[in-house]
C-alpha cells in the first residue's frame, strides 16, 4: 500500500478503492486476465524486477497485427525505485522485443500532460510527441487529457537499449 499516493492519480478509474484493488485475490484475477490476453496475442505483460524484488510493471497492450502492426505501452514503477533508470531500461527492452521478436512496426505511449516522470522516460528514449487527446481516458475518476508519443522501427535502427546503456 506504500505506493497509493504515488500511483493513484495515474490509475484507471474503478468503483473499488485502492485497498480492494490491491489484494492478493485482485492480483490473481488481474494476472489470469493478462495471461489470457497474452495467449490471444493481444498483450505482453512484464514484471520489472530489481535486486530480486518486483518493483514495477510494463504492459504492451492493444497489439494489432496486419497492416498496422502496432501496440500501446503502459507502465508503473515503485516510488522507491523511481529516478534510478529502471523504467527507461525496461521500456527499451520491451520496445526492442516488440520490434524484433514480435514483429511490430510502431509502439505508442499515451501520457497525461502533468505526468512529468513518464514524459521524461519517453523523452530519454526518443519517443516523438505526435498528438494531444482531450478527455481521452477515464483515469482517477474523470476523463483526462493525454499526450500521444510514438516510435517506429525506423526510428531505432540500432535498437532502444543502446540509448540507455552507457557506451
Tell me what the structure shows.
31% of the residues lie in helices and 34% in strands. It is α+β, with helices and mostly antiparallel strands. The longest helix has 17 residues, at 24-40.
Largest sheet: 6 strands, mixed
Spans of at least 5 consecutive residues with low confidence: none
- How many structural domains are formed by the residues? 1
What is the CATH-assigned architecture? 3-Layer(aba) Sandwich
Helical content (DSSP H or I, runs of 4+): 25-40%
CATH level-3 fold name:
Aminopeptidase
Order of helices and strands: HHHEEEHEHEEH
Task: Provide the fold topology.
Layout: H1 4-7, H2 18-21, H3 24-40, E1 44-50, E2 53-64, E3 70-77, H4 86-99, E4 106-111, H5 116-124, E5 128-139, E6 142-152, H6 161-164
Parallel strand pairs: 3-4
Antiparallel strand pairs: 1-2, 2-3, 4-6, 5-6
Features:
alpha+beta, six-stranded mixed beta sheet, 6 helices, Aminopeptidase, single chain, 34% strand, 167 residues
